Amino acid sequence: MKHDTIRADDGELLQVHLMGSGTPILLLHGWTSNHAAWSPLLEPLGENYRLLRPDARGHSGQPLTVNQAPDVKRLARDVINLLDFYGIERIAAVGHSMGALTLWQCLRDVGTDRFSHLAFIDQSPKLLTDATWQNGIYGNFDSAHAQRLLDDLGTDFPEAVLRLIALGLNSKARETYLRNSSGWRAAREALNRIDPAPAIAIWQSLVAADYRDVLPKIDVPTLLAYGTASNFYTADTAHFVASQIPAARLSFYDGADHCPHLLQPDRFAAELTELLNQ
């Protein structure tokens, strides 16, 4: 296991955790998470691949010194800076939640030239819903709902994030949240260690984004992993994404929430390995 600190092209310091050797795989975590979220995949993947797990800026636990209000475009630029730092011309990349949105922004900015294979985990290309789009968060996360959440984030950031996760489409998450199980207590403690201002700025940029036009331009082997009990998305979202990406493989994880790759890490690792062999 190795830890590097690299400097982005705007001067901000970024944290990257590395493990293994061989073909490199970039693992991009979700919003309010960090590199440690990928821990269940280290054993099934680490023996055969070189795993790069960066902390998105604002998520490493270290204060930002350059820009207190980063956005998804900056996160995507950080990915390209990382590849340049390690001299990686092309890489297989996996994005979960915010990580998927970050990869879609990368594809908008630079195309697929830097990516040999892609995997997107339980994400919609457009979070906000309206009269013409119901495949965003919950199927009914409209601008009014988004503003209420933004207000809540400013008032009590940790609890607002937990409610976003818990009070959605997954009934088990709702039940365990309402009885304040140990997992939710641990998540609350972790969220208390995050600086809210940069995280909220990133969230606002994610909600404003729309990557539906990017999907048809993806011309590399692609894996899509979705949970059938996702906190945020129905099967319609997954099928839409699959229909837009040429030759994408869609894989549903029965009973899984927003993190299907963590519920069944061996299965996800096997599917990713199969993708990389294409």
Topology-level CATH name = Rossmann fold
Roughly what fraction of the amino acids lie in strands? 15-25%
Tell me the name of the CATH class. Answer: Alpha Beta
User: What's the total number of strands?
Assistant: 8
In percent, how helical is the residue content? 40-55%
- Which value, in Å, is the CA radius of gyration? 18 Å
> What is the succession of H and E elements?
EEEHEHEHEHHHHHEHEHH
Overall number of domains: 1
Distance between the termini: 28 Å
SS field, number of helical segments: 11
Instruction: Provide mean pLDDT, rounded.
Output: 97
Largest sheet: 8 strands, mixed
**CATH homolog superfamily:** Alpha/Beta hydrolase fold, catalytic domain
Provide the spatial order of strands within the biggest beta sheet: 1-2-4-3-5-6-7-8
* CATH architecture tag: 3-Layer(aba) Sandwich
Shape category: globular
Unreliable runs: none
Instruction: Note the quaternary state here.
Output: single chain
Structural class: alpha/beta
Task: Provide an overview of this structure.
This protein is of the alpha/beta class. The chain has one domain (2-276): Alpha/Beta hydrolase fold, catalytic domain (Rossmann fold, 3-Layer(aba) Sandwich). The chain is built from eleven helices and eight strands. The protein has an eight-stranded mixed sheet with strand order 1-2-4-3-5-6-7-8, sandwiched between helices. The longest helix has 14 residues, at 72-85. The mean pLDDT is 97.
Brief digest:
The protein is an alpha/beta fold. It has helices at residues 42-46, 72-85, 98-110, 143-155, 157-166, 171-178, 182-191, 196-208, 235-244, 260-263, 265-276; strands at 2-7, 13-19, 23-28, 49-54, 91-96, 115-121, 222-227, 249-253. It is built from eleven helices and eight strands.
